[in-house]
Amino acid sequence: xxxxxxxxxxxxxxxxxxxxxxxxxxxxxxxxxxxxxxxxxxxxxxxxxxxxxxxxxxxxxxxxxxxxxxxxxxxxxxxxxxxxxxxxxxxxxxxxxxxxxxxxxxxxxxxxxxxxxxxxxxxxxxxxxxxxxxxxxxxxxxxxxxxxxxxxxxxxxxxxxxxxxxxxxxxxxxxxxxxxxxxxxxxxxxxxxxxxxxxxxxxxxxxxxxxxxxxxxxxxxxxxxxxxxxxxxxxxxxxxxxxxxxxxxxxxxxxxxxxxxxxxxxxxxxxxxxxxxxxxxxxxxxxxxxxxxxxxxxxxxxxxxxxxxxxxxxxxxxxxxxxxxxxxxxxxxxxxxxxxxxxxxxxxxxxxxxxxxxxxxxxxxxxxxxxxxxxxxxxxxxxxxxxxxxxxxxxxxxxxxxxxxxxxxxxxxxxxxxxxxxxxxxxxxxxxxxxxxxxxxxxxxxxxxxxxxxxxxxxxxxxxxxxxxxxxxxxxxxxxxxxxxxxxxx
Length: 490
Fold this sequence. Notes:
Layout: H1 5-38, H2 43-64, H3 67-73, H4 79-111, H5 116-142, H6 146-171, H7 175-196, H8 210-240, H9 243-277, H10 282-309, H11 311-318, H12 327-342, H13 345-352, H14 356-377, H15 381-407, H16 412-436, H17 447-467, H18 469-489
């Protein structure tokens, strides 16, 4: 691996370019999948899968056990350590597969939905498949083989979407969504094994993997706490309101939050190996965080501002008739997603500096905020739950800066100012998109209405840049960095 600062910069730049391109393709595929399958599968059928998917998500965090991130950030990883980590991930995946199959009748009884038995048993095999793939995928990241990983991560959802559409055209029920998830895992497994060119040997003692488990344990705890808090709404809605409202909530969440995750997670894939190597150089570390915030947050938050202002049009275009009630949910998730993105560089810091224990403590505090938001919001139904979720994210953003600044060197003040400059552009853009829907002939729930909202947002953003020099400097930095990345990748 190229170890000089210049070599790391070049590889990170190439990785950022490839990762951005692949994630753009994956997001388009995700949006296309939601748009197409929403016209084949009704909300109540989506709600059935969502009831199981929340439990499956917890199992996926347990199955990874934080060991993929532990392997990616390790300065050195021996062949025997990698072998041992593989067998641990596989053993956990196999155990979860068996447990999910056995628990299927209990889950069905909990929600009083017999169809959940078959859904649970089918999705159980995702644990086993992903357990086989975890360390092969982590190995591609360690080697910075981002192009290879990008091909796999685009091919898998393409194949899965094609399979899901074929099933949906025949069944028009939840089976299309189940097949999509299983197919994605299976194609990813095949791709990373072929690309990884590595066959694990049998596990051995004395390989020195205790440090991996210590780091992974802290990360696992924080992920479980965060996931549980994020998905409490699924259980509350499923148990109290039924599959119909849960289907609306789930599709709005998937349409917005899953693409955001697909943007943010790969940014960690690119940033983590580099940040881990410069963690002891505060000047370079802080500079990368500040630039990373702008590159990640500015374009994403501006797009989310348009979604908030034109949520009716977004739902009309991407989900179609019958999903109109999802618009306020989508707007709330866009607010939450913007705040989470502004704070996301803090997550890089926890991982790069090995602060998984501190991350767990922070996650427990923010989980209390999320749970409180959902429970208080539940008095106002599904819209209140989404609003409570957004309110907790707004509170978490400044909390994240203060929390990290207490325990490590961290440019919290400068990151907060950078985030405020992003919001200074996003709020007028969102208001412009909302105002565009009030224009005569804008047809708010149509493609025309969405196009007018986007154009209005772009116009107002241009006016903001023209009026405020600091905002122009941020935009110029974004353009400069993107050009540098493209030049280095060429």
